[in-house]
Amino acid sequence: MIPSKEDRAARALDYFHQGYNCSQSVFAAFADVCGLTEETALKLSSPLGAGIGRMREVCGAFCGMSMLAGSLYGNSSPETGEKEKIFSLVQSLAASFKQEFGTLYCRELLGLSPESLAAETARPGERTAAYYASRPCERYIAFCARCAAELEAKARRHENTQPPLQGNREL
């Protein structure tokens, strides 16, 4: 049985509550779709969390969703038209994310001041109840997992196949 959007979102949130970063949480929830082991999905997406390497740039949850988009629809040819298809898809996903949350940037989503950004290090915060209560990240993770599930459903309808879904897909 194919997991629902809500099942995928719940799986992504479960990863987050286990202590994985936002990118890992979204991408690992779709490891089966990509034909990857959980461990491989977690490793591949690990540098993209906390706004890419904890630099508070593009939201890690969005990065994880973009990785799934690449797995389902990405180009394996250097042709301009093939690149344009995946870039167009990611730009459309970005527009939806920005419409919902106002920005793609982790630092803005978290409301971090320049002073707090200057004090950031590579060391992640301790995952406590207070940590989770102070972070809006669950909203972004759930949103991206639901959007990723829509990408998965669209790919399944187009291919009429079961996982793993790999290679280029016509958009």
Proportion of strand residues:
under 5%
Element string (H = helix, E = strand):
HHHHHHHHHH
Shape: globular
Largest sheet: none
- Helix proportion range: 55-70%
What does the average pLDDT come to? 92
**What is the CA–CA distance across the termini?**
24 Å
Task: Provide the structure class.
Answer: mainly alpha
Instruction: Report low-confidence residues grouped into runs of 5 or more.
Output: 161-171
What is the total tally of β strands?
0
Radius of gyration: 16 Å
Q: Number of helical segments?
A: 10
Q: What does this molecule look like?
A:
With 171 residues, the chain is mainly α. The protein is 63% helix and 0% strand. It is built from ten helices and no strands.
What's a concise summary of this model?
By secondary structure, the protein is mostly helical.
Keywords:
disordered C terminus, 171 residues, 0% strand, 10 helices, single chain, mainly alpha
What is the topological layout?
Elements: H1 5-18, H2 22-28, H3 31-34, H4 38-45, H5 60-73, H6 80-101, H7 106-109, H8 114-118, H9 129-134, H10 137-159
Helix pairs in contact: 1-2, 1-10, 2-4, 2-5, 2-10, 5-6, 5-10
